Amino acid sequence: MLCEHVFLAAAATDAALGRRNTEFQAAAGALDANSVDLSKAIGSVYGPDAEKAFLPLWRKHIGFFIDYTVGVATKDKAKQEKAVSDLVQYPKDFGAFMHSASPAIPANVVG
How many domains are contained in the chain? Predict the structure, then answer.
C-alpha cells in the first residue's frame, strides 16, 4: 500500500504541475482511497482509535505536498517555505502518533 501511495502521489503531483485537472482529480481520488485503506490497515493492528487518528494525520501530510506543489507552480516562495516547514514537522507528529498507538515504538524513531 505504501508503494501505491508513492506512485499515486507522484501521479497527482505530475498532473497538477502539468495543469491536467481531470487527471489530477482521478489521481487525488485514488490517493485518498489508498489513504483510507492504509488507515484500515493501521486499525487492524492498533485498533479503531488508531485508525480514526491516523487518517486525518495522513491526509495532512498529503496536503503539505499539495501546498508545496502549488507553491512551485505559482512561484510562491512563502507557500513553498511553509510547506517545507510543515513537512519537516510531520515526522515528529507521526512519531508521536505511532508512539501513542504502540508505546514500544519511541516517538523519535520516526521523527
Answer: 1
